Amino acid sequence: MAPPYTARMKRTHDALRLDVAAFIADAAQLSGDWPGASLQRLADLQAAPQDTPLAAVAWQALGQRLPVAAGDAELWLHLHASAQVWLTCQRCLQPFTVPLDIDQRLRFVRGEAQAEALDAEIEEDVLALSKSLDLRDLVEDELLLALPIVPRHDACPQPLPVPLGEAPAPEDVPERENPFAALQRLKSTTPGGAGG
Ligand SMILES: [Zn+2]
User: Is 66 helix (H, G, I), strand (E, B) or coil?
Assistant: First the structure.
């Protein structure tokens, strides 16, 4: 039996056990921050400097019913999340932070079979409706997909580490001449001197 209207309007939604159909029917919104360590798979991939806690993941979810001319309304979930993750630069091997930002539209349909069929047809991801979807797990999936394949600084802040036994000889770079000294010398050789 359907709950009375007022009760439906007041029902709360749990991001970690989301009744997706109810969330979308309510056009509900949820948002918050999850501690970085609570996204276990993402945390395991990170290489933060010692004593540096992982940054929290800020997230937002929004349910939307999209009426269509014929047939059932489309059921959509908009997911947005951002995080700063610690990765190891593959060039200089130093830890650095990479901003991750996902903005995803997911469509929900009844049953795995329909989800698979539609997923092959449309560009957006299609999932089967669930009574207890773990949004954190879903956000973590998307963040993992957004990781750079080869994390690298745009410009490494430190010289590249030198393999042991291959220390270079001190570089034989001539000292740059002080430009004022050069100017002074030029003046002193100019005929007529400073004038006056
Ligand atoms: Zn680097």
Answer: strand
